[in-house]
Amino acid sequence: MQYILDRPDLVLDVVIEHVYITVIAVLAASVIGVFLGVLVTRIRALYDLVLTVAGIIYTVPSLAMFVLMIPILGIGFKSAVVALVLYSLLILIRNTAVGIDGVDPNIIEAANGMGMTPLSILLRIELPLALPVIFAGIRIAAVSAISLGTIAAFIGAGGIGDLIFEGISSQRDDKIIAGAIAASAMAIGTEVLLRQIEKGASPGITGDFKTLGEHLADAWNALWHRPDLVALIGAILLLAGYGSATWVRPYAEHEAIAGNEEAQTALADNGLLNMTGWDVARVRTDAPVKRSLQILPWLGLIAGALALWNTVRGPGGRASAEVLLLCGLLGIFPLLHFYLELDRAVGELGSYSTLFRSIRNQVNSLIDGRVPVNPDTLSAGPGFTLAAVGVGLIIGGALLKSLWFRRQARQTEEQPA
User: pTM (2 decimals)?
Assistant: First the structure.
């Protein structure tokens, strides 16, 4: 997770590559698979043959399939897309055929009696009724393509697999975890979105079905009527951000440095071995700022406890809105102090760029690998951003709560006696 926060640009690049490969492959496979699925329902002699061939292709190991594409299409994007298309065909052909075969024969007979052509029956009756099953196949194929697409990096196609393979080759767990999180998020997001489309395509859906937009509207209404939830989320983010900002991982905990006494000595001689974000912030911090920093987590705890209590037992009193607002406003000042002091301290350390370059070269020559010895590794910017969002949500929750009380009072006054 830390790698995603440190290098969001690189993670975003490989995610975009992965999305591009997956979308092209799934779209092409959907067109071919649906066409073949319709074809085998019209020409029954092809049914067993097409499904058997697709089944044989599906049983080929994924890595072997990607390698087999190299002599034909070369290394890179084309081989990856074709391999993913071939893997998706079995699911799409089978689901399309099952969906069309599942249409009630009485409906087809009635359509023939009305004089509809076979093409009209297919486009206006069979395919619409089979859409839920077809979309289920597309959903499964898309999720499978996302997971198999990570292996495509082995043949130079790019994508999230690059991040995972680089992490394995360099023995960096943070890269492997970042790639796994990105791939999992893509798969889960695709599953949720396509399941929504699948439900929306189902004929005769009940009123219980809601689109994602309707779910978001319900969530907004819930937050509007329960503003303490907003404040509670803000308090959690504030505490999480404060914790991550003040507990930046020191160099002493790095695996390569922890096992090398010479590297530890080189860093310790320059005061960097155990320096955390909290230590950096105190380089030039005066006593009032130190005291204000000690107050910040307590403001988050008070706001979180109050919001949690009101969320469980009800809206709470009008005074609780003022307490939440006070916690949020007071939290701005220590947050600004902490940010400015850390920024100043890192800037001062950065002014000794020659010193840091020499230390970096010295440490990297002592260990098996590269450890970035520079002030940027002690930057707590992401933590402060998270804490700032938390403070904003606490203030927003307090304001929403005040508006809620005002609306309740207005409705009470308008009711006839």
Answer: 0.58
